Amino acid sequence: MSHEQEQKQWVPEICYEESDEGITSHIPFIDVPLNLEMPKILFIFETRETGEFEPGPDGDPMPIVDLDLHQYADMNTLRDQLAPHLYDLVRQSLGLEPLAEAIPAGQKLTQNIRNKLGVSEPIKPQPTQFHPDLLASIQKELEEMAAEDAKSKE
After folding, report:
1. ∠ CA 70-73-79 to the nearest 5 degrees?
2. Which of 14, 15, 16, 17 is nearest to 42 (CA)?
3. Element (H, E) at 142
4. What residues are paired with 14 via a beta bridge?
5. Which residues lie closer than 8 Å to 121 by C-beta, 6 or more apart?
């Protein structure tokens, strides 16, 4: 079986730690086999009881349940494949800050955790990298603003 076929047939299992002291801190995790990759999208059904009942297989009342299919995309895939301004729109539509604001906040949070754990080395800030399309767009806007400014001074 090819890697691609094996990846398509693999059914990831969402797991939760039983202890509050676990390494994932209440965040679910998927144990990915060495030869496979984390799925780029997960499909998860939401089930919700309607409050109504129907006879079950044994004749006892069984709740009627509505199903609603949700899709969860890997944010790293979106970050790597979308232009930065589109990725920021996706982040903002999910209630997240734009990446340029979130990175320093995340680094500060990580440093606070490291301080509490007694790790003395500070995190070195990484330079913010921008997608070439975004840089070209900003450059074009700056040139247009400069041209309008020069026109208004004439």
Report:
1. 155
2. 14
3. helix 132-153
4. 30
5. 114
Q: Each residue's pLDDT tens digit in the chain (154 positions)?
A: 888 888 888 999 999 888 777 777 778 999 999 999 999 999 999 999 999 999 999 999 999 999 999 999 999 999 999 999 999 999 999 999 998 898 888 888 888 877 777 776 665 655 556 566 666 666 677 777 777 777 777 7
- The helix (H) or strand (E) run that includes residue 46 is strand 41-55
Terminal Cα-to-Cα distance of the chain (whole angstroms) = 71
Q: Phi-psi category of 63—alpha, beta or left, where left has phi over 0 and alpha has psi -120 to 50?
A: beta
Q: Look up the pTM and report it.
A: 0.62
DSSP state of 102: H
What kind and span of H or E run contains 118?
Answer: none
Location of structure tokens 């754990």: 117
CA 126/CA 131 separation, integer angstroms: 15
